[in-house]
Design brief:
The protein is mainly β and 120 residues long. It is built from no helices and nine strands. It is globular, with a radius of gyration of 14 Å.
């Protein structure tokens, strides 16, 4: 069975260099702020910008490996899954991101999974 998207569209949000290494950039969307993270190995992930425990801004957290630590209560969240790590429970919604060969970053904000086809 195929699961469709309620709504999604790819939007260019800038270059990879516009996202701080081991940091995040906020993108305002119709559904609210989305944090676009760049890891030390230049992978890019996007999550709703709210901690699953406290609602704090994940974009202000510390990125380490493929995780971010919320600045309010030190909740660690996987950038790959949006799941809280360790004894904390909860999850934030992930969004699809794509980096093209010329280092342009695209974001697809959606309410459902699986992810839409990325631009080439």
């Amino acid at each position: 069975m195929k699961v469709g998207f309620l709504k999604s569209s790819w939007r260019r949000i800038g270059t990879l260099d516009a996202i701080p290494c081991r940091g995040a950039r906020i993108v305002e969307t119709e559904r609210g702020p989305v944090a676009v993270f760049r890891t030390g190995d230049d992978e890019v992930f996007a999550l709703d910008d709210r901690c699953p425990r406290s609602g704090g801004p994940l974009s202000c957290g510390i990125v380490h490996g493929h995780q971010v630590t919320c600045p309010l209560h030190a909740t660690e969240v996987s950038l790959e899954t949006g799941e809280a790590i360790g004894q904390r429970v909860g999850r934030v919604l992930q969004h699809a991101v794509r980096v093209t060969h010329d280092r342009q970053v695209y974001l697809a904000v959606s309410n459902e999974f699986p992810r839409p086809r990325a631009p080439s």
